[in-house]
Amino acid sequence: MAHLLQGLRHRIHRALGAACIATLALFAGCATLPSQEDRPETHAIAPSAQGPLSSAVMPMAQQHPDKTGVVGIDDGHVAFGARMALARAATRSIDIQTFIWHNDATGTLLFDEVMRAAERGVRVRILLDDLNTAGLDPTLALIASQPNVDLRLYNPYAGRSARGVGFLADFTRLNHRMHNKSFTVDNVVAVVGGRNIADEYFEAGAGTGLVDLDVIAFGEVVKSVSSEFDLFWNSPSAYPAKKILAGVEPESRQALASRAQKIRDDPTTAKYADAIAHAEVVQRMLAHTLQPEWTTATVVHDDPGKTLSPEAKAELLLLPKLISAFGKPVKSLDIISPYFVPGNAGTEALANLARQGVQVRVLTNSLAATDEKSVHSGYVKHRKDLLQAGVQLYELKPEAAPIMSRAKEIGRGSKAGLHAKTYAIDGRTIFVGSFNFDPRSARLNTEMGLVIESPRMASKLHDFVGDAYPSIAYRVTLAEDGSLRWADADGKVYTVDPETGWLERTFVGIGAALPIEWLL
């Protein structure tokens, strides 16, 4: 009898589970993804000697065979201005891969700029992750309908409404995202880094401004960036937006142009436009006066198969490739990561390096500066172990000086958050890209970036981390009783996370106690 009852309970549980899944699917609209059978495969257009960018870049590259020219961009205004100027200078192709593209001021202006490029005959391919596109469908439908523009949505929602329910109904698939970012023009210039396309990433918003880093690259590595783009573009997870958005009423071209013009005419935005107008990196490139650093650079990236693999295979993952390209640190390891969740294995690895005499320093967001409180809960549980081993921890203040000074220049109030994902080893090699030091980047999302042999850039990063305290960051230390302390510039010492309330700290404490680290 007990055996029969146990079997009955098992069948009831299975039936209830199936009923829940069916109900979720019903609320999600019972939508399914379209077939990919007739989707064309396309590839990057080969560079041509014609056009302003090619005529400026190709002679430089020919003087440095097998090398890559790099210019770092840590100013959001310059980063946006460079993208706009590159799009305006394009004559053959623009390939954009991004995790987020908002319909705010910078997003609208860039939408309008790439549309203008397409209207003069430039082929535009946009690969956009679909997680953050809610409310954007009319604009995306417009973009996808234009001649010379091909828009694909990566790992999309099958139903465009009730996204929350749709996410739960198809959680295993939709929990994997494409976090890669690249912006390649005429297959001769590429921008790679951590910035999405939205006001906060270009220090243009009235809210949080984000400290970030891009690299403009020329020469040898651009071919590899284009190959990475093609790999994801032609992957099974990249769906033509026309199919996904069938039935969506597109925004008119005139409406988009009017929105863009209104942004240009707005007095507040005009100050920002004036600030980016003086971003001279592209102008100097076109004038043949730019002097990039020529060195060796390697693209490292996940395989798009990671998106559909229920258990990520090591050969698909960026992290082992990054470790291999970097080599083992001997003197120093500097880590800048906004979402720093090392886990048990990462904590032990960093602790071992510190015990071996390697100077290990981490700059991440403070609780007051982070925009992801839940992710911070995965960091706090490892702080003491890291500090006890000799790892140095610095947490960015929400009023970080570089962001605030630039915000004041354009008449905007802002608080700062860290978004750059960059690492340097022994003052010789630096990584710039989209990879956060957390389980989500390692196991769930796809990522990419550049490993650059550059003592100049690596030393600059090393100095930046060293100078972060006390100007823009708190230094976290251990008191004699083992409790945490945060030191400030004026000698003030905090015994709890600075500039936070008890509710925030309680939320993070509860999150740290839950078994959710694998999701962070």
Describe the structure in your own words.
This protein is globular. Residues 1-29 and 404-414 have low confidence and may be disordered. The strands form 3 sheets. A 10-stranded mixed sheet has the order 11-18-17-16-12-13-14-19-20-21, sandwiched between helices. Helix 15 (343-355) links the parallel strand 12 (332-336) and strand 13. It starts with a helix and ends in a 7-residue tail after the last helix. Helix content is 42%, strand content 20%. The protein is built from 21 helices and 21 strands. By secondary structure, the protein is of the alpha+beta class. 49% of the residues are buried. Helix 15 (343-355) packs parallel to helix 17.
Instruction: State the shape.
Output: globular
Mean pLDDT: 86
Question: Helical element count?
Answer: 21
| Cα-based radius of gyration, to the nearest Å | 24 Å
Task: Provide the β-strand percentage band.
Answer: 15-25%
The percent range for helix content is 40-55%
- Give the helix/strand class: alpha+beta
The low-confidence runs, each spanning 5 or more residues with pLDDT under 50, are 1-29, 404-414
Q: Termini distance?
A: 45 Å
Main sheet specs: 10 strands, mixed
Topology, number of strands = 21
Spatially, the strands of the biggest sheet line up as 11-18-17-16-12-13-14-19-20-21
